[in-house]
Amino acid sequence: MNDISRARDEFLESADRYPEAFRRQLGAASRRGFLTAGLGVGAAGLLGACSTKTKKTAAGTDTGSAGTTGSSGSSGASSAASSAAPAEGKAGTDKSDTEKIVNFSNWVSYIDVDDKDKNKRPTLDNFKAATGIEVKYTEDVNSNDDFFAKIHQQLAGGQDTGRDLMVLSDWMIGKLRQMGYLQPLNLDNIPNFKNLLPEAQNPAYDPARKHTVPWALGFTLIGVNLKSAGLTKDQAQQLSIKDMLTDTKYKGKVGYFAEMEDGVGFSMLANGIDPGKFTDDEFAKAVDFIQKARDNNQIRQFTGNDYINDLTNGNYAMCMAYSGDVAQLDDDNLVWVVPQEGMLWFADNMCIPSLAAHKTNAEKFMNYMLDPKVGATLDDFISYIPSMTGADAAMKDIDADALKNQLIFPDAATKAKAHEFMELDLKTLDKYVAQFKEVTG
């Protein structure tokens, strides 16, 4: 039995035997998860969720940059994870011909809404008008780990989850793929697949994008309620992660992500540690820094994607935030800030789970979202980075000012402030998640 098979069996056994404990303790994977590799430059070269962090084979032959091994035992990328050929997700009976629907699970605040009717979503309405397919849209992804807990029992039991399409972060995509829970795509239904940026075509978590189409790429940074923080906009732009976690002016008014890569990654930046290459000792130092902030009651709450209300109503003076979420609020009192130490990348992708009942319809929706005009329209609203060629040209006709928006078309200087988290094998990931869970509870 290879390492991936053994890890999968142990994972499933523990989850099935102790589902409630599993739900509480399951490791976290942020929207960013394991962003894999460098970014193209310029508006047309922006990465949409997926360059490939390359690895070395067992024989040492370069297939790109090697994974890293910390001096105190932390392991880098697992070549087994990328080279293994897991079973494909099971195909269900596709009812797309007779049932013109797509059941779609996504994150909160991750799609456009009509200015006059908040219950209407133009992208989905336009897709129905073009294809006759209705998208039954549910915002039920609050964090990758919580969502996995919702669907795991069904997937493990060979049951339809009731979902045809899901948006999950790159790390969780890799995990589901290795477990054989994702169906391979039929590219005959996705001719716009050719529009993917070259950098987006071969991510490590889904080689050759056999199972995924990008949804968006963005940043993890700081969201600030100016009134609650007692800051001007200019003052807020000078904030650091260390300020957020140590300045007593914000005691009890800080929101912090409970997902390991985001939470520990931020702490690493505050302590001068590279999230892309660190040791066990450095990881422990970052965790201890967060523990101290919690012990000092600096952190009000550890959150998933449910931080918006507390930021809006002033319960948080500041919090970790996803870049486009704050921008969408369109509130002069709420601003996004790139911390002085830098920020993190995240990446999200559409995928189709095992036994989905409307696979072809889901693939047609993927195809629709890869149209440059559609992608640009969406990203103009949600303020995230598109992943297809031609989005910058399309944006000129949609909202020329958006070409200057650093959340949608970041320049080289902005991208240089963003960091990715080191790719980890499953064993090391489990160890690190357990350490962080001791802090977050």
List low-confidence stretches.
1-84
Order of helices and strands: HHHEHEHEHEHHHEHHEHEHEEHHHHEH
Biggest sheet layout: 10 strands, mixed
Would you tell me the overall average pLDDT?
82
Q: SS-based structural class? A: alpha/beta
The amount of helix comes to: 25-40%
Count of individual helical segments: 18
Polypeptide structure, described:
This protein has helices at residues 3-17, 19-25, 79-83, 122-131, 144-156, 170-178, 226-229, 233-236, 241-246, 260-270, 280-295, 308-312, 323-329, 359-369, 372-382, 391-398, 412-415, 426-440, and strands spanning 101-107, 134-141, 165-169, 212-225, 254-257, 299-303, 318-322, 334-337, 343-351, 418-419. By secondary structure, the chain is an alpha/beta fold. Mean pLDDT is 82; it is low at 1-84. Strands 1, 2, 3, 4, 5, 6, 7, 8, 9 and 10 form a 10-stranded mixed beta sheet that branches. The protein is built from 18 helices and 10 strands. Helices cover 37% and strands 14% of the residues. Helix 1 packs across helix 2, helix 2 (19-25) runs antiparallel to helix 5 and helix 11 runs parallel beside helix 18 (426-440).
What's the topology here?
Elements: H1 3-17, H2 19-25, H3 79-83, E1 101-107, H4 122-131, E2 134-141, H5 144-156, E3 165-169, H6 170-178, E4 212-225, H7 226-229, H8 233-236, H9 241-246, E5 254-257, H10 260-270, H11 280-295, E6 299-303, H12 308-312, E7 318-322, H13 323-329, E8 334-337, E9 343-351, H14 359-369, H15 372-382, H16 391-398, H17 412-415, E10 418-419, H18 426-440
Helix pairs in contact: 1-2, 2-5, 10-11, 11-18, 15-16
